[in-house]
Amino acid sequence: MILACLGGKAFAEDDYTSSDELIGAVESFLEERVQEYLLEAGFNARHENQINALDPRLRLAACDKPLTLSQQGAPTPVGRISVKVRCEGSSPWTVFVPVQVKLYRPVVVAVQPLLRGTVLDDQNVALMERDVGTLTQGYLTSLQQVVGTKLKRQVVNEQILAPAFIEQAELIRKGEQVVINARSASFNIRMQGEALADGAKDEEIRVRNLSSNRVIRGRVVDQGQVEVAL
Q: What is 105-168's CATH number?
């Protein structure tokens, strides 16, 4: 739907702004806005601008001043937005043009149906190009962001993974034998221990030193590896 507000001044039938001129102005404005957005965001992306068909009955007076355009609604030029076009000339008018900007980026998707609790790796996820303007739950753009994490919910084949879908997977399980690395600036001591809790990467858990039977706290650094700062 195109919404227009016209001034009261009459004009001749042939003396109007053509739909091609109006669409061209909106296209140029969108191209500039999208390029500015991509530059500020720091990434490249393919994009498409879809402008709704104009009402053929729409008659807007030819503007004797340059048209002014501004984006309405959403703060970024992505997804469904509205462009306000104004003529501030001798026969003023305002029209709102609905558009959809499709911005395509490689995002992380599941390449097969996956159950809740599945640990993600490069065999069950991949990057595929999608229109991110429709992804209201967010998205992930690197496999490094998800490999080694686990799903908090079931997903279907080619489903886009939102950040809320994943959590850190446990690298250590309660009761497992672990290696305790006690580090300082000048030396490193390795001891055998027992995990007293589950732990994901960078989590701090309680472990028992099997030599001294002393319980200490350490940071999970890898599968079966706990680090203690001295």
A: 3.90.1210.10
pLDDT in tens, 104-155: 999 999 999 999 999 999 999 999 999 998 898 999 999 999 998 999 999 9
C-beta of residue 49 within 8 angstroms of C-beta of residue 27: yes
**Pairing mode, strands 177-183 and 68-72:** unpaired
For residue 99, the number of C-alpha atoms closer than 13 Å in the C-beta half-sphere is 33
CB 195 within 8 A of CB 202: no
Local confidence band at 1 (pLDDT 50, 70, 90 cut-offs): very low
Q: Which CATH number fits domain 170-229: 2.60.120.260, 2.30.30.760, 2.60.40.2470, 3.90.1150.10?
A: 2.30.30.760
Distances (CA, A) of 156 to 110, 113, 117, 161: 7, 4, 14, 10
Q: What is the pTM of this model?
A: 0.69
What CA–CA distance (Å, rounded) separates 95 from 4? 4
